[in-house]
């Protein structure tokens, strides 16, 4: 097995070819400034797989279907997975103090069903979905009959596996308000890991999905699309937003990250806050059977 010296970088041509491959498969842009980073990440895969060099690894990738495990390992290396519960407190203050009370009052008045459907798009290890579950459990406590479904999706099979395992370390848990932590999580004995109680787990499901493809699901009340489009270019952002719009209805809410860079692309939405939009025009859903 040949291990590449740690200073060796992909050539400019290899960088271009890798960048195109990543863009075509995931929509993520790799700029020329990321040469060192990309080289380091690919080198890690060379070490694990025993493949001799950057060129051979590229050829291996293009010869494999994107569903192959190696593709997943590669994408996990070249994408960012940073996430934690209660990330961006303004989002959660809105959700807990404005959105949920509005839902419950509408349900009391009989103008909406006791149902809430949320999509955590590009959910990484599920921390965002778990935050929604935690807030919903708190905000809807004592009100019988609510059906809450939170669907988390990510391109990374490994990330989805971790999301399904629902085991959060101290770093993920550091912003969870103490009363909610005590009420809705159990600490695994003699470990620094927390697991959500079944009340939360029952609301969540996770699966692999590429945002460049339509999601076959019924419309959602809320879509969280955070800290992912920041890595996309205008063309792939547009494609993702089209897919997102297909699973929204007029009145559905879109929650964005602080730096997604899509404010010019949100024609069919009414801006409520810089990161919060209400859908006004929804596209028709993708054909085929929707998931439940
Ligand atoms: C920084 S994390 C964001 C996690 C979470 N939304 C948050 O804000 O805390 C970005 C995630 O986007 C995922 N991702 C990147 N490209 C994707 C694509 N084309 N489709 C679905 N997920 C993608 C990555 O696998 C990664 O887990």
How would you characterize the overall build of this protein?
It catalyses: L-glutamyl-[protein] + S-adenosyl-L-methionine = [protein]-L-glutamate 5-O-methyl ester + S-adenosyl-L-homocysteine. It is an enzyme of class 2 (transferase). InterPro entries: Bact_Chemotaxis_MeTrfase (IPR050903), CheR_C (IPR022642), CheR_MeTrfase (IPR000780), CheR_N (IPR022641), CheR_N_sf (IPR036804), SAM-dependent_MTases_sf (IPR029063). Keywords: Methyltransferase, S-adenosyl-L-methionine, Transferase. Residues 10-282 form the CheR-type methyltransferase domain. This protein is of the alpha/beta class. It has two domains: 12-78, Orthogonal Bundle (Chemotaxis Receptor Methyltransferase Cher, domain 1); 89-279, Vaccinia Virus protein VP39 (Rossmann fold), CATH 3.40.50.150. 41% of the residues lie in helices and 17% in strands. It has eleven helices and nine strands. The strands form two sheets. Strands 5-2-1-6-7-9-8 form a seven-stranded mixed β-sheet. A two-stranded antiparallel sheet has the order 3-4. A hairpin with a 2-residue loop joins strand 8 and strand 9. The radius of gyration is 20 Å and the shape is globular. The chain binds S-adenosylmethionine. S-adenosylmethionine binds next to loops.
Question: Helices and strands: which structural class?
Answer: alpha/beta
Largest sheet: 7 strands, mixed
Distance between the termini: 48 Å
Small molecules bound: S-adenosylmethionine
CATH class of the largest domain: Alpha Beta
**Rg to the nearest angstrom?**
20 Å
């Amino acid at each position: 097995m040949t291990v590449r010296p740690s200073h060796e970088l992909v050539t400019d041509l290899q960088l271009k070819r890798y960048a195109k491959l990543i863009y075509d498969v995931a929509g993520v842009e790799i700029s020329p400034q990321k040469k060192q980073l990309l080289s380091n990440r690919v080198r890690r895969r060379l070490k694990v797989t025993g493949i001799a060099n950057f060129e051979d690894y590229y050829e291996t990738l293009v010869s494999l279907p994107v569903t192959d495990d190696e593709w997943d390992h590669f994408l996990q290396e070249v994408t960012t997975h940073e996430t934690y519960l209660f990330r961006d407190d303004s989002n959660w203050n809105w959700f807990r103090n404005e959105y949920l009370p509005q839902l419950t009052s509408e349900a009391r008045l009989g103008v909406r069903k006791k149902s809430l459907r949320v999509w955590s798009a590009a959910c990484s290890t599920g921390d965002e979905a778990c935050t929604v579950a935690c807030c919903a459990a708190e905000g809807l406590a004592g009100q019988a009959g609510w059906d809450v479904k939170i669907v988390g999706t990510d391109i990374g099979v490994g990330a989805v596996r971790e999301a399904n395992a629902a085991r959060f370390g101290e770093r993920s848990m550091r912003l969870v308000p103490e009363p909610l932590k005590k009420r809705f999580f159990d600490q695994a004995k003699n470990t620094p890991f927390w697991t959500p109680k079944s009340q939360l787990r029952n609301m969540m499901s996770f699966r692999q999905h590429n945002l460049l493809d339509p999601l076959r699901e019924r419309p959602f009340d809320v879509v969280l699309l955070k800290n992912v489009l920041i890595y996309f270019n205008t063309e792939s952002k547009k494609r993702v937003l089209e897919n997102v719009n297909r699973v929204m209805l007029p009145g559905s809410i879109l929650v964005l990250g602080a730096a997604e860079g899509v404010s010019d692309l949100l024609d069919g939405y009414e801006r409520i806050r810089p990161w919060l939009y209400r859908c006004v025009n929804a596209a028709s859903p993708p054909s085929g059977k929707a998931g439940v």
